[in-house]
Amino acid sequence: MEVIVSYTPEGAKSIIEATRININNDWKTIKTTAIGKYPYIALSSHKLDFGELVTGLSITKEITLKNPSLVPAEFEIQEENEEANVLPSFTLDCYKYTIPPNSSFLIKVKYSPSIVGMYSCAHYKVRVKGGNEAKFTCLGQALGLQVSLSSNTVSFGEVTLGTTITRVLYVENKSKQPATFQFATDKKNVFSFSKREGVVKGRSDFRVVITFCPTDTINYYERVFCIVQNHLILVIVH
User: What is the C-alpha to C-alpha distance for residues 167 and 81, in angstroms, rounded to an integer?
Assistant: First the structure.
């Protein structure tokens, strides 16, 4: 008959037990010993600084959890600052695991900013069951695309009624990523745009022709907003 003896340590201490077994009125003694060890986890880094990153992109860094102890280390990672969950920018590929003795475990942290100009800071706590606690911080700054207009003012001067005049405006994109733009203007207007929306390729420009066709002998003035994805609003006056 096989007898299984289980041991669940409640602390870091050594235990010696004597077990008596009666076999056909012949008493036998079995000595059992065990040593309880605290699990322990050490981090390869306590801060992951992702620096500046354009909104819409993502970058991944790694952090290593080392278990130098002689027992398995069961851990769980929790985020300390709850406000970071409202607009999460950081994600981990694993939040709980059991690391074998004298082993390590790699965790990948992904930074994906979603709001231009937002500074993200997330604090994480690594809780080891029956062992220690370790903390690390993730930092990142979200940047917008480098998009601008060739001019913020378009002047048509004096134009005779019944005639039209055009001017050329360029939407310039100095970023590597493409930029989506849209001019907030009405089609039925004395100022008309050849393209009211489009996509500017990375490190390129987009040509827009603005046509002015006056209907009355008055001064015309208009502010037009150019909405660019992952960028602040641009304004032109004509």
Answer: 52
Q: What is the pTM of this model?
A: 0.70
By three-state DSSP, how is residue 83 classified?
helix
- Residue spans of beta strands (DSSP E) within the chain: 14-23, 26-35, 42-43, 47-54, 59-67, 73-79, 90-92, 96-99, 103-111, 119-128, 133-143, 147-149, 165-173, 179-184, 191-193, 197-200, 204-212, 223-228, 234-237
Residue pair 128/98 in contact (Cβ under 8 Å)? The answer is no
Does the pLDDT at position 83 exceed 70?
Answer: no
Domains recognised in the chain with CATH numbers: 42-143 (2.60.40.10), 147-237 (2.60.40.10)
pLDDT of amino acid 238: 65
The predicted-structure confidence for 23-64, as pLDDT tens digits, reads as follows 888 898 888 888 777 888 999 999 999 999 988 889 999 999
